[in-house]
Specification:
Blueprint lengths: L2 E9 L1 E4 L2 E4 L8 E9 L1
Antiparallel strand pairs: 1-4, 2-3
Length: about 40
């Protein structure tokens, strides 16, 4: 059975289509997103 865990990443900017987008442009301090980690 494959177990899926998630690691939460916080970053002040993300890159979309080669352009850097800062969280401060959207009134935030950081962007938050989850990255799945597959464990066998």
């Amino acid at each position: 059975m494959v177990d899926i865990e998630y690691k939460v990443i916080y970053t002040p900017y993300i890159t979309v289509k080669g352009r850097r987008i800062y969280a401060s442009q959207y009134g935030k301090k950081v962007f938050r997103f989850s990255v799945p980690i597959i464990k066998d």
